[in-house]
Amino acid sequence: MARGGFHGGGFHSGGHHGGGFHGGGFHGGGFHGGGFGSSFGGGFRSGYYGDSYNGGGYNDGSEEGMGEANFAIKNMLLFVVIGLAFVAEVGVGHIPGMDLVNLTMFIVAMLFFLLGIREFKRTAGVYRLRKAAGPIQVQVWNSDNRNWIPSFSISDKVSWAGKYDKKYRIAFYDQDFGMENVIKVREMMKRTPKIVWMNSFVWLAIGTIGTIGNFFFYELVIPVFENMIMTDIAFTFIDHFIFYLPAAITMLSAIACYVIMKVKDKLLHDCAVRIIEDNNAAYEKMKTEDFIASSLSKRWYHNKCPNCGAGAVKDKRSCTHCGTSLEVEDIDKEPVYSVHRISADAERFAQGVGDDK
User: Fold this and answer.
1) Cβ-proximal residues to 99 (8 Å cutoff; 6+ apart), any chain
2) What is the spatial distance between Cα 20 and Cα 95, in angstroms, rounded to a whole number?
């Protein structure tokens, strides 16, 4: 019958379980023997009582002597020693479910989770867009100062995006363009894989489950394979795979959390550039339409004289041939192609001189 390397002669005999917390670990030579006890004794007592207050502190006349510094240094060294002792315990297999390989995986996972989760606040606004019925008081950004406009940027009154430094800000609360921004970001999210927009804390939850499972997953699963007939090579592979699987899941979840955060930034930056270009184009179009509207009269005139059929001369309110008024009485009854408007200036001028009806 096959026996697991981390289980048969490892976990229970003298590996991760046998001489761990009680044998030669925290109680034997660790916390109680010469580790925590004597370090704390020599650190705290000599630091606080010997050097600081009694030795070189108040009693020797130096209220700010080296005692406090020595106390801090000694206790900092104490925590370093404890950390090294923990790593050493892992290295010799005294902590259940841990060795130096999966300990390294958990350290890597912790670093990636720190990098991924700390950026969550910036893009958290996208998770509220799915239910947004109108402009909402949130924004997404990629900058230390969300109101800072980067150099080499394009911008409108509610958003900005740096062309070269990949910084961006998209606001969803503007009266004119807020809803447009919501719609465009929502469309972009629908076009991209849903996994990209998964909440970062979901990955953290998966990693936490992997971390907790690391301490009992191997013990629960490996007995199933120990009762199977297989080659030593196959069992060795399964043995290692099961032992390192929870740590690998934790590490991969952390890396996914970080990588997806970067992907989100890239997608939102590209979307911000497009949003600003569209908004600026819409704003310029609106200004042009307002200018044209203000430049034209409110009234409509026939393209051809309703009396003699002569073509209308530009900016004239009456026919130059027969003098009949070209003004349309009921615009709803006229086809669009048969009417036009004249400039407001021409109409005002004609009214000022009495026109040439």
Assistant:
1) 6, 16, 90, 91, 93
2) 6
Question: Measuring CA to CA, which residue among 207, 215, 195 is closest to residue 6?
Answer: 215
Report the run of H or E that residue 141 belongs to, with start and end: strand 139-141
Neighbours of 288 (CB within 10 A): 10
Nearest CA-CA partner of 35 in 73, 89, 71: 89
Encode pLDDT of 190-211 as tens digits: 999 999 999 899 999 999 999 8
Burial class (CB in 10 A: 0-12, 13-18, 19+), 30: buried
CA gap 131, 171 in Å, rounded:
16
Q: How far is CA 248 from CA 9, 102, 110, 240, 352, in A?
A: 23, 8, 12, 11, 86
* Residues 24, 346: Cα–Cα separation, whole Å: 103
SS3 of residue 155 by DSSP: strand
Given this model, what pLDDT does residue 22 score? 34
Distance in angstroms (rounded) separating the CA atoms of residues 160 and 164: 12
Name which of 190, 186, 184 is nearest 275 in CA terms: 184
For the four alpha carbons of 177, 180, 184 and 185, in that order, the dihedral sign comes to positive
Give the pLDDT confidence score for residue 269 in this predicted structure.
95
Provide Rg for the chain, Cα atoms: 39
Cα–Cα distance, 2 to 223 (Å, whole number):
9
Task: Out of 21-35, 117-131, 226-240, pick the least confident.
Answer: 21-35
